[in-house]
Amino acid sequence: MRSIGRFIALGVLLGVVGVARAQESASGPPRTLAGVCGTANWVCVAECIDADCIDQCMREGCEEALSRLKSCTAKAGCAPEDSRCSARRCASTCQQAFEPAPPSPEKEVGSPCGEGRLASSTSVPKDLVGTWRLAAASLPDVDDGRAHRIEPQPRADYARSLLITPEGCFVLSTALKDATLGEGNSLAVRAWGTVEVVGKDTLRLRTRDGQAVGPVCGEARVIPLSRGKLRFRGGTYLWEMERHKLTLTVDDRTKQTFQFDRVRSAK
Q: For residue 72, what is the DSSP state?
């Protein structure tokens, strides 16, 4: 087992999915309607593996719009539990902060791995099967002389979990809450696909589809993530197991390492 002495408990600060720098896609940073948060941002979040990446995804195109919305809801005295306050007191500002709802509403996929919808072409080791919650991460190697920013306090905005089934299907979930999206708004960003195990210590996550689901501006949204020109990239990791902890190391020059705690075993 590699030493995890450098791990810092970021808890729910960090995320589990995709590759280390999703925002650096072949076509450049995520793009959506100018000045609003939209599908490109949610796809970018679903491809991140660290908090800096998520922050960058949320800055692209919608940072100023969300700042205006948070200012409005703060002045209006919106309570965190009031999911309709932003729509009632800051309707215009909220609508201007997000892309319009899709013209053809999409149904939420409740169980992406249910009924054998997705299965891997390779067998999945029993140790990998179950639900995992990201608990800690190593400091990435710094080769440009600059210190890497680490958020000192856990943030529930970026809660991440990973489900792996015996058939080799996975679901990666990210919680974006009102601290990120403004009072009364929240999205569960999910990506799903298949796990391919290569050799004894390597696995690939091949993302096939995804959705962002939750209340936005007082209305329930189900936002598809696989339409248009946006594409998932997936990721390759070295994996190790020790007791009830799963360690994934990004298989690239950064060698960033992430540790997950088992929540429950898949039945």
A: H
